Amino acid sequence: MAVTPSGVDRQTPQREFPVALVAALVTVSLWASAFVGIRYAGRELAPGALALGRLLVGSLALGVLVLIRREPLAPRRSLRGIVICGVLWFGVYNVALNAAERHIDAGTASLLVNVGPIFIAILAGVALKEGFPRLLVVGCVVSFAGVALIAIATSRHGVSASWGAALCILAAAAYACGVVAQKPALRHGSPLAITWLACVIGTVCCLPFAPSLVDQLGRAHPASIAWTVYLGLAPTAIGFLTWAYALSRTEAGKLGSTTYLVPPIAVLLGWIILGEVPPLLALPGGILCLTGVALARWKPRRSGPSADAEPAAPGRPISLRS
Q1: R_g of the chain computed on alpha carbons
Q2: 58 and 236 in contact (C-beta within 8 Å)?
Q3: Domain carrying residue 40
Q4: Residue 13: is it exposed, middle or buried by C-beta count within 10 angstroms (0-12/13-18/19+)?
Q5: What is the pLDDT of residues 235-261, one digit of tens each?
Q6: Domain contains 49
Q7: Please, which residues bridge with residue 5 across strands?
Q8: Do residues 28 and 98 make contact, with C-beta atoms less than 8 angstroms apart?
Q9: Which of these, 161, 208, 233, 273, has the minimum number of CB atoms within 10 Å of its CB?
């Protein structure tokens, strides 16, 4: 759940970093728990229905905050980025991940989705003209070697599990496109307003699943309904809001390392709550994925007094997640 574009203003106070880091850690923990919640609720709710239920709750919760705070709406120039973020990150990502977790366990899903930063780096190289430095290329190779290892591990469980792994990669790609679009929008509007609008747009995209949601909620157990509400309130409303807050205030290099906490937390929660563990080969595959992400994002520090003072370039991608 998980890496995102981030830039920091030259005037960003250093004292804001501890608060932003706490916000990022809250996000990481909530997004890790989302993999478990999806796996549990997905036993009774179809992927589209679960996505719509989660986004409805998230939109309502964020909407209440917008009203209480009398938050101004984002300006028109940010709408393009918000729409892309809402459709891809909130809409496509949720449906694809929900479908994936009907076939594979929560821990394996979290390992695969966390290749998202690689896609973000590739998009930045093309769309933001950042190029493809050697470490990025090496990181891509290492990460996708990890994905291949996980694919081999899941293939032993049949075609269904392999399809689940492929859906996780689709979710990661949708997530990457969404977060690359989100950062420019954050330059023009508040994190709360932008997160709420993106969530509403994702909800609208999932409205065709409304009939199945109504039908399945009527037959679902209370625990599945409770997990759906939790997914909307915690990982969606609170998690995305704290992420947007951290993203708008933190340098890429300082924030990015928190992403590596998502898979181990998700694996641990999956074992404790669901009694599931990833296939044996998926664990070294996951380590390769995260190592590749670290290599792709690593930039050697320059010597000289100006090295520490230089801010991250606007729109530079980092990773924080699920």
Answers
A1: 19
A2: yes
A3: 13-299
A4: exposed
A5: 988 887 787 777 777 654 455 567 678
A6: yes
A7: 317
A8: no
A9: 208
Number of domains in the chain: 1
Model confidence band, residue 305 (pLDDT cutoffs 50, 70, 90):
very low
Give bridge partners of residue 122 from the DSSP assignment.
none
Distance CA 298, CA 18 (A): 22
Q: How far apart are CA 28 and CA 49, in angstroms?
A: 24
CA–CA separation, 317 vs 180, rounded Å?
7
pTM over 0.90: no
Tokens for 139, please give them. Answer: 């990181």
Mean pLDDT of the chain: 80
Task: Identify the CA nearest to 112 among candidates 4, 243, 270, 2.
Answer: 2
Return the H-helix or E-strand segment holding 48. helix 47-69
Q: What pLDDT is stored for residue 203 in this prediction?
A: 97
**Cα–Cα distance between 128 and 250 in angstroms, integer?**
20
User: Coil, helix or strand for 318?
Assistant: strand
Write the CB contacts of 200 (distance below 8 Å, at least 6 apart in sequence): 59, 63, 86
Domain for residue 137, yes or no? yes
Residue 313 in domain? no
